[in-house]
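User: Before I run my own analysis I want an independent prediction to cross-check against. Here's the chain; please return only the structure tokens and, at the end, one sentence I can use as a sanity check.
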Amino acid sequence: MTSKFSSKEIHFLKTDSDDSSFKPPETYFSDLLWAKTAQVKAFQKRLSRKKIPGGEFLCAVIQISSDASKVIQKKAKDTFEATFNSFLDNKKGLWNNLGKTSFVLAFWDYDSEKKASQLIVTLKNKISTALKADILVGVAKFPFHNFSKSQTFGNALKAIDHAAFFTPDTLVYFDATSLNISGDRLYQLNKSDMAIKEYKKGLEIEPNDINLINSLGVCFGIMGNLDKAKLEFKKALAANPDEPMVIYNIGLLYQIEGDVDTAIHYLQKARDIDPCIFEVELLLGHLLIKKEQPDKAIPHLETASQINPISGLAFRMKGEIYLDGNFPGKADREFNRAIKLNPSDAVALSGYAKSLELRGKNLNIARIFAKNSIALEPGNKLFKERLKIIQEKIKDTPLSEEKNEIA
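Assistant: Structure tokens:
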């Protein structure tokens, strides 16, 4: 018996922007960098050309709450400009709008970084009070690490994305975690090469950050560079030997390489630390099926379906085990659950059709499901064979039985 997975069904684990305790933003300001909008290019040009006394400045990206009324949104620009001018002038700062409710400013010539930070907070509070709306702020300073002036603006954009993971009224300074989030966003956009650069830059700032190390390993793994991925995961494991996410990722690497026993060893180790990780239980079930140990696989799949009852994968895999063990009644219940959760699961559709055929019930319905599975996977020989058997049984079924089979 085999259990089939796609890369979307079994995947590496990441943290921070995937952490369920935080809610990712609906839109990412860092996307403006990659899109190179007119507003971004204009401010980058102004900032890079500006002669700044002392060479130090703070850059902040400010967003008025997206939930603000249209009246407040219309007032946003005038309020921002008035507030900016009440604290600064064009000799000590500059600003630009990034959208109807978002702005960027940079300012300099302050007595100390502490006072500059207090000024940012005061600006935030003034705008919030004037508009009676929540304000999100991302701040970056220059000089910092080896970033240029224009990159500092990009860092502020990444910092406000970082802030968006928290409450709607948050101020965050750019740091290594901001780069992790930026890298994760690029990873989501299938820009793995750019994501790797972000993670590496973050590790220059925080060399032992386990989330950045793990994220870098995930990127290498997705790109098929398993040796580099394993090296990063081992580094992460050295930083924290009890991190189940990293242990799972190492196990997944061994599974990809075909070393099932070593993969199971790592997965069981991850499970001993945290018994409530869906991916760990699911992959353990899959590998135990591969080793032809279905009885050992079932408890892991039961646990997986309890941890994540909205995923059809564990139900489908249980259905495959029961079908292979000649328990069609149990199989069709599991396949039915899987199909309700994912109507495009070709394996579950075909398995459900086969379980109905073995029970000799609802053959016309079984034929529909079998045809649907082939429509999704036209080249699957097993699916075609199952459909052929169902059609032959329908031909041999007396008309009276065929009419009453659904009832």
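Sanity check: The longest helix spans residues 113-131.
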